[in-house]
Design a protein that fits this description.
heterodimer; A: about 100 residues; alpha+beta; Ribosomal Protein S5, domain 2; five-stranded mixed beta sheet; 2 helices; 5 strands; B: about 300 residues; alpha/beta; 2-enoyl-CoA Hydratase, Chain A, domain 1; 12 helices; about 40% helix; globular
Chain lengths: ~100, ~300
C-alpha cells in the first residue's frame, strides 16, 4: 500500500450544500471516493491509499488536471484505490463532485 | 428518444435497474421509498477493518456493508446491504458487527422488520476468526429478534450470491426472496470441487452451478419463498409481499420446518441432479426450467411450490 496526499489552492468553492458523498467501490481496477465539505473555500485536499505502489507521478497529473477543471474548493477527497486506471479515477472524482454539488444532506 | 432522466419516477428507475449489477447503495436507494434512507455508521466515520492493513490490502470506508433505516411503502424498516464487489462481500469483524448491531436494535424495538440484502461469499479469510464469530453472533441475533416478533427478510440476487456463513444466516431468516442470478448455498462450487473432486462437482460447469444453487432451484425447493425478476422494483415488491406473509415464530414453526425438511429429504434423497428433483416434484419437461423467462417460471413455481406457511 502507498499513501499519497495532495493539497491545492483553488479559484472558487464547489457548488451545492451536501456535506458529504461517496461513489465507487474498492475492487480490482476500481476505487471509492469519499468527498466531504470540510475545508476553507479556497482549499482542496486529496488523500489517497492505493494498492498500486509507485504511481505518484500519474496521480499528481490526474489530480492536478481534476482540480484545474472543477475547482473543487472546500472539499476534501479521501480515496481507497484498488489499482484503478487514470481514466477511471478521473470519472470517479467527477462523479463525486457532481454528487456533493446536489442540494440536501 | 427516451424520456429525460428527471421525468422518470422512482418506480420506473427501480424497474429498469438490475439488482445484480447495482451497487449496495443503489439497491437501497431504489428499494426504499425515495429519499427515506438514513445510514448508521456511514463511510465518513471511517469504521474500517482493523485487519486488512496487516495484509497490505486496501480498506473500504463502510467495510463492505451499508446499514441504516428507511421506509417501505410508508412503514419503517431496518436495512443492511452487502457490497459484493468489495472482497466478495465477505464478513469481517466490522462488517459483521454492523449487521449484529442493526438486528439487535430491531429486537429491542420489537416492531420494525429487518431487510438483509445478502451479497457474500462468506467469511473474509484475512479475518477468519473474527468473521466466524460475527456469523455466529448474527445468527443468534436473528433468532432472538424473530423470537421477539421481528420479521427478518433476506433478499438475494447479487453477484457474489449468498454463500458460506451468509447461507447459514439466510437459513435463519423468516423468509427469503431470490432472483435467478442469486445463488444460495454454504459451500461454494470451487470449495466442493477442491474438497471432493471434479467428479463430485465441476465448478466450471455454469449450468450445473446454477441449477444446483441458483434462485430457480431454491424457489422450487421451498428454501426461498418468492422468486423475483432481476430488477430492484421486483425485489421491493417481493419484500412487501414477504412482510405480509411471515407468520408468528415459535417452537411450533420450528417443528413444522423440521418436518418439512425431513419430508423433503425422504422424498428427494435418491435424486442426483436438480432436474431429477423437479421431475419428482411433478414438473413436466423439467429440463426446460433453466431457460424459462421469469414470468413463466413464477407461474410454474406458484403452481408447484410447496412452501408451507406454517414452517420456517
Amino acid at each position: 500500500m502507498e499513501d499519497l496526499r495532495f493539497q491545492h489552492r483553488v479559484r472558487a468553492p464547489a457548488g451545492g450544500t451536501r456535506q458529504s458523498a461517496i461513489v465507487g467501490v474498492v475492487a480490482s481496477g476500481n476505487l471509492e471516493v469519499l468527498v466531504e465539505r470540510v475545508l476553507p473555500d479556497v482549499e482542496c485536499a486529496v488523500d489517497i491509499k492505493t494498492a498500486a505502489v509507485g504511481f505518484g507521478e500519474v496521480w499528481t497529473a490526474v489530480i492536478g488536471d481534476f482540480v484545474e477543471r472543477y475547482s473543487p474548493g472546500g472539499l476534501r477527497f479521501s480515496i481507497n484505490d484498488g489499482g484503478a486506471r487514470p481514466d477511471t479515477v478521473s470519472l470517479r472524482l467527477a462523479q463525486a463532485v457532481r454528487l456533493i454539488a446536489e442540494n440536501g444532506q | 428518444m427516451s424520456a429525460p432522466l428527471k421525468d422518470i419516477t422512482p418506480a420506473e428507475r427501480a424497474r429498469s435497474t438490475s439488482f445484480y449489477e447495482a451497487s449496495a447503495r443503489t439497491r437501497l436507494e431504489l428499494l426504499l421509498d425515495a429519499g427515506s434512507f438514513v445510514e448508521f455508521i456511514g463511510p465518513e466515520q471511517r469504521e474500517v477493518s482493523p485487519h486488512l492493513k496487516i495484509f497490505d490490502l486496501p480498506e473500504q470506508f463502510d467495510d463492505g456493508i451499508v446499514v441504516g433505516r428507511g421506509r417501505l411503502d410508508g412503514s419503517p424498516v431496518f436495512v443492511a446491504a452487502q457490497e459484493g464487489r468489495f472482497m466478495g462481500g465477505a464478513f469481517g469483524e466490522v462488517h459483521g458487527a454492523k449487521l449484529t448491531g442493526l438486528i439487535r436494535a430491531a429486537r429491542q424495538i420489537g416492531s420494525i422488520p429487518v431487510l438483509i440484502l445478502f451479497d457474500t461469499g462468506g467469511v473474509r479469510l484475512q479475518e477468519a476468526n473474527a468473521g466466524e464469530l460475527a456469523i455466529a453472533e448474527i445468527m443468534r441475533a436473528v433468532m432472538e429478534a424473530r423470537s421477539a416478533g421481528v420479521k427478518v427478510i433476506g433478499l438475494i440476487g447479487g453477484r457474489s450470491g449468498c454463500y458460506g456463513g451468509g447461507g447459514l444466516i439466510a437459513g435463519c431468516c423468516s423468509a427469503l426472496a431470490v432472483s435467478e442470478p442469486g445463488r444460495i448455498a454454504v459451500s461454494g462450487p470451487e470449495v466442493i470441487e477442491t474438497n471432493r473432486g471434479v467428479e463430485e462437482f465441476d465448478s466450471r460447469d455454469r449450468a450445473l452451478v446454477w441449477r444446483t444453487m441458483g434462485g430457480k432451484h431454491r424457489r422450487l425447493l421451498g428454501a426461498a419463498d418468492v422468486f423475483a425478476d432481476d430488477n430492484v422494483q421486483d425485489f421491493r415488491e417481493a419484500a412487501l409481499e414477504l412482510l405480509e406473509l411471515v407468520g408468528p415464530f415459535g417452537l411450533d414453526a420450528l417443528k413444522a420446518e423440521q418436518e418439512r425438511l425431513a419430508d423433503r429429504l425422504r422424498r428427494l434423497s435418491a435424486c442426483s441432479d436438480a432436474v431429477d428433483i423437479w421431475t419428482a416434484e411433478g414438473i413436466a419437461h423439467a429440463e426446460t426450467v433453466p431457460e424459462l423467462p421469469a414470468d413463466q417460471f413464477i407461474a410454474l413455481a406458484d403452481r408447484t411450490g410447496r412452501t408451507s406457511r406454517d414452517a420456517r
